[in-house]
Sequence to fold (405 residues):
Amino acid sequence: MNKTLVATALAAIFLVPSVSAIEIYKDNKNAVEIGGFIDARVINTQGETEVVNGASRINFGFNRELTDGWKAFAKLEWGVNPVGSSDIVYNNRFESVQEEFFYNRLGYAGLSHDTYGTLTIGKQWGAWYDVVYNTNYGFVWDGNTAGVYTYNKDDGAVNGVGRGDKTVQYRNAFGDVSFAVQAQLKNSSFYTCDLRKLDGGKYEPEVSQEECAERWGNDAQQVEFNYTYGAALTYKATDMLTLTAGVNRGEFEVSYGNGEQTTAVDLIYGAGITWGNFDNNGLYAAANVNRQENHDTDNIGRLIKDAYGIESLVSYKFDNGLRPFISYNVLDAGKDYVIQPNFNAKPTDEFKRQFVVVGLHFVWDPNTVLYVEARKDYSDFSGEHEARMALSESDGVAIGIRYTL
Fold:
């Protein structure tokens, strides 16, 4: 058994892609550590300049030595907003409304053994992330074409490919090969509606859940999206070369008012290749490709029937701490990409999310990074909803600092 690979597998579920923590307590049985980072940035995009939070987070790790080589551990992680976010609203009087300072990112507990592997239960990084995390190193515009941050760039909780909710996961390693398998055990249901045509030939822009429920039996459907399953395989071919592959699957069970039922499969599969280590000096290069069905949504929330995605990143870290990089991302669904009539859309648009990011990081020390990153958008959202879908895909530039604990 390769204990180094087992440790690497454990690190992958703790805090991907980079692991940094400070031990704050340790005795002969228990240990507690604190980790995370504060990332604050100034960003200019969509004609505005603003100070924003860069996915800052804080986490606590707990480890306990048990008998016969077993260990118990737990992880709790929250996102934090250190820069503040207050808005003025008017409801018969002016009020100041502030967003929550904390929000849940990870929370799981598990058991591990050098021979028998690792079992974890809770909200955790999905097995699919093992396949594609190698290109997710941009600080500002990280990869969102690899099928991880699904449902309009959320955290991948719903279908277990990102920080999956209610997930049971098993990991182990044999020689140069490690693997992960998981099941997401949840129950969820909701309503969808076919968009009604308005005067002038256009379709209504959106329908609330309450309105869909009221339409049940006419042009609305009841949808159940419950268990999902995933698996990933990692092969450390050499000290520099790593190959990955994996799959994730779920099912939408759709019920119509006339008693008919149908199933739509949520499926993504793909592979990745990595050369080097992003944090080490020298060349780093990575790429991954995926094929997906009913797995993600377009920028206005409509389910994409079929698409492929590619992510790539190349960087070089110099001895003086400078690390320039360039990445290219594309998620292409083409035209006629939306299920009709099951998932509330009229297929009249083109969807091709495509952009390039260039950046320069100054790694002052391993835990302090100054950076500048810029994004150039080459997306194609031609069609009836082009303006709405292009809102979140603008060019931009940002400068910031990441302070890691």
